[in-house]
Amino acid sequence: MRDYWLSKLFFDLQSSAPLGEEYRAGRKSILDRYPLKPEVRKAVERDDVVFLASRVNPYLLRFYFVVAGMPETEFLNKVRNAGAESAARSSHG
Amino acid sequence: MAELVGVYASSHAPLIIRGWKNVSPANQGSLSRSMTELGSRIKASKADVIIEIAPDHWVNFFIDNLPSICVGMGEEHEGPAEPWMKDCPYKTIKGHPKLANHIVETALEHDFEPSMSHHLTLDHGFCIPLWRGGLEPMPPIVPHLSTDLAPPHRRVRRCLQWGTMLAEAVRTYPEDIRVALLATGGLSHSIGEPTMGEIDEPFDRECIRHFESGDERKLIDFLNERLPTIGNGAAEIRNWVAAHGAADRRGFELIGYCNCPEVYVGCGFASWNLGARV
Question: Labelling B142: which of B76, B118, B176, B233 has CA 20 to 30 A away?
Fold first, then answer.
């Protein structure tokens, strides 16, 4: 599944250094420009890597969290958990 | 007529630039030796033009439109846009529209329908191997962008055929120019996935053995079977396959391999001895 506007947000942020700086200074005004579904916006606001991982290309996910400033070890832990949680869900039907 | 004077392949891990200080001295040495050697071989080829095949890392194309392969037709290309590539000396890069046009015409004659662009940005996938290989000044580039990062992917056998077509396009280009081909990407790596950071060295070694053997069928079967089972970055090996096709499936020589966890990539560097063709 690909969420178009989430993908567009991530794509735009990693394409423009000034936009990335603006985003790190304050997300709200930039998030307001994208018609994200409420649950998607909440996931972005709380850095929910697991939720977002299933909705965008993995490279865009990676690039986004570099721009957003998430420490590398934190991202690695969270993205690896995305696999564990996905496996847990599938094993429970 | 033009002549194909060299065929090369290289990894292009971003952390070679962005995280170099975190790479161990041993791996820094290994990577530096390989990239310098690769650059020396490209320079020694005295190429007037380089055809370069690399994936688009979400720089030129978005999910609105993802061409499976796009040929850069422009007089000039933009240098890398990534903020961490700011020290790269290639701010703009010359193109070679006439050769690019001839490649597209040849492709159409061979039942390929590539996309075309007259204005491309060449990201780190294009620039890291040339920059770290010391290619300055850089010859004009005819870029081929592939969508290796966004499945479904080009079939491996078609990548091989694409390379064969490129060699034919060079052979039939009417000007006396020397043309090199550089494919970038791979080997095994995983980005933004639960397996991020995993390097599959046994896969990489077996892949290298298949390139060395020159057995086309075994290479295709191996990659068809294994690529879907390992990290997403290995999809870029399709570009190496195109280089292998351009070299007529012979003469592969590994310059160096470095299982480098600090950059998340099994880094490979290679050239094809075109004199091995019979």
Answer: B233
Q: φ, ψ for residue B145 (rounded to 5)? A: -95, 135
DSSP state of B230: S
* Neighbouring C-beta atoms of residue B87, cutoff 10 Å: 7
Distance from CA of A42 to the nearest CA of B (A): 20
Q: What is the DSSP letter of B89?
A: S
Residue to test with chain B: of A50, A59, A65, A86, most B Cβ within 10 A = A59
DSSP E strand boundaries for chain B: 3-10, 49-55, 69-72, 76-78, 92-94, 115-117, 141-146, 178-184, 252-260, 265-272
Question: Is the distance from CB of B263 to CB of B23 less than 8 angstroms?
Answer: yes
* Residue with token string 């001839």: B102
* pLDDT on residue A82: 82
The pLDDT-based confidence of A87 (bands split at 50, 70, 90) is: low
Q: Which residue of A has its CA nearest to B18?
A: A66
How far is B173 from B102, CA to CA, in rounded Å? Answer: 7
pLDDT over 60 at B254, yes or no: yes
d(CA B104, CA B223) in angstroms, rounded, equals 27
8 Å CB contact of B194 and A14 = no
CA-to-CA distance for B32 and B27, rounded, in angstroms?
8
Are the beta carbons of B156 and B109 closer than 8 angstroms?
A: no
Q: Which residue has the tokens 């962005």?
A: B18
Measured between alpha carbons, how far is A32 from A27 in angstroms, rounded to an integer? Answer: 9
pLDDT digits (tens, 9 = 90+) for B134-162: 998 899 999 999 989 999 999 999 999 99
pTM of the full structure: 0.95
**B115 conformational bin, left if phi > 0, alpha if psi -120 to 50, beta if neither:** beta
ipTM for the predicted complex: 0.93
